[in-house]
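Researcher: Sequence recovery benchmark, item below. Answer with residues only.
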């Protein structure tokens, strides 16, 4: 059924941002250091910190536990260990980025930015309450400037900073509760950070702070997305929401694990979604993961499907996607969208001592209705995992390619408006060096053929430093 409703449209692709200004003097540098950090100083600071950290391996006065403990403050019998003994598990991560575009038609500005993640997990049983109840809270704070939306790329090149609004969204809070029923069934409800959930995927994931940075890899499409195009902070075309309000039922069996999600299809970064959940419809999704072994090597096959009864812009009747509608104007919408995907992860090499440590192949193929979903299909594949050389087992690496096939009604509608666009694809590679378990230095390189055919191929490079306190 198609009817006329009010909706906001996809914002036009922003022009490239201007390059950062050089600081004229030491006084000017000190005055603006809180907002902009020059490339030379960030690179130098990163290298100094790296050299200092690796040099500490040989320092006799550094306790050996400092080089092996999972976080900087996770000392034996320290405050964190004592809190964990009563069921309170806090963690603080700081991830810094220095990223820029080296080739292409976009802005060549290099920018410094970062993200603070504060996690709190509570085990109710250890607190003397009932068994199997858990609370998970995650607070995120963003700082600095990122290069998303300063180029001609459709997909954000820095997922961790992709959902920061220009007009003030610099923090996000997610909270959920989980009740385990034995070892096989759990029920969770609340506001979920989908980037954090994606980071649990063995060979890929990462949410943009551990492994791949491009959104194609760091937050793969889930099919649970709102297609009314309110003007998201990260995606110029909606793929899936970074934050969701809803519930998840997980069932662990052998050899198949099942999951069912019911969620509000809108991104919960919008406060209205929290205040008025499910007012625009709901989305239902299911997943089945089959665990396999080939010659003793672990593998996973995951099939997902989702459907939402929310309304999205009818791409067969695009009037103008280049600007927001005038007050009182009507846009044709279409009710309902579906999505399905199939993913494979297969280890080629794994540790004999710890089968969860290894590297191998990952692939993901998706298919949607193509209207109102703007992405008809997508595919990604690559290699990634741990470096199993002696002493470097904690290092992570990956290389992969992706391609997003935009739906024909969207491309035709844009062409009728003299806006030429195409599907987008690219490749990305990274290496994440574990200086210690709590200090990681990454190098990342992306090459993208942007969805704007008039723009040339673009290359992005980045340094990423993560500290776990």
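Model:
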């Amino acid at each position: 059924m198609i009817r006329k409703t009010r909706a906001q449209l996809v914002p036009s692709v922003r022009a490239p941002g201007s390059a950062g200004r050089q600081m004229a003097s030491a006084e000017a540098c000190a005055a603006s250091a809180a907002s902009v950090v020059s490339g030379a100083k960030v690179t130098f600071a990163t290298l100094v910190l790296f050299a200092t950290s690796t040099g500490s391996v040989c320092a006799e006065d550094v306790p050996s536990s400092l080089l092996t403990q999972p976080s900087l403050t996770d000392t034996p019998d320290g405050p964190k260990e004592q809190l964990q003994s009563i069921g309170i598990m806090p963690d603080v991560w700081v991830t810094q980025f220095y990223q820029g575009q080296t080739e292409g038609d976009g802005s060549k500005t290099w920018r410094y930015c970062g993200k603070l993640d504060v996690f709190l997990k509570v085990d109710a049983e250890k607190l003397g309450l009932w068994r199997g109840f858990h609370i998970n809270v995650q607070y995120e704070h963003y700082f600095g400037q990122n290069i998303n939306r300063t180029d001609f790329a459709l997909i954000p090149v820095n997922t961790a900073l992709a959902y920061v609004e220009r007009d003030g969204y610099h923090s996000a809070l997610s909270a959920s509760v989980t009740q385990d029923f034995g070892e096989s069934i759990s029920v969770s409800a609340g506001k979920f950070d989908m980037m954090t959930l994606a980071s649990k995927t063995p060979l890929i994931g990462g949410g943009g702070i551990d492994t791949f940075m491009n959104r194609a890899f760091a937050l793969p499409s889930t099919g649970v997305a709102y297609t009314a195009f309110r003007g998201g902070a990260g995606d110029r075309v909606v793929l899936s929401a970074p934050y969701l309000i809803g519930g998840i039922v997980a069932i662990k069996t052998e050899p198949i694990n099942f999951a069912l999600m019911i969620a509000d299809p809108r991104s919960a970064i919008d406060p209205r979604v929290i205040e008025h959940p499910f007012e625009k419809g709901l989305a239902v999704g299911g997943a089945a993961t089959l665990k396999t072994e080939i010659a003793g090597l672990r593998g996973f096959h995951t099939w997902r499907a989702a459907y939402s009864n929310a309304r999205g812009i009818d791409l067969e009747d695009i009037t103008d996607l280049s600007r927001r509608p005038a007050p009182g104007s009507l846009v044709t919408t279409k009710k309902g969208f579906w999505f399905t995907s199939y993913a494979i992860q297969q280890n080629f090499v794994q540790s004999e001592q710890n089968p969860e440590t290894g590297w191998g192949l990952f692939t993901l193929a998706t298919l949607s209705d193509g209207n109102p979903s703007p992405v008809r299909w997508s595919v990604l594949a690559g290699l990634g995992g741990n470096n199993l050389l002696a002493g470097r087992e904690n290092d992570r690496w990956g290389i992969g390619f992706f391609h997003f096939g935009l739906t024909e009604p969207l491309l035709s509608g844009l062409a009728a408006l003299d806006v030429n666009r195409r599907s987008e694809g690219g490749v990305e590679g990274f290496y994440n060096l574990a200086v210690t378990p709590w200090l990681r230095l990454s190098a990342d390189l992306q090459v993208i053929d942007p969805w704007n055919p008039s723009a040339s191929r673009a290359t992005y490079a980045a340094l990423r430093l993560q500290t776990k306190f």
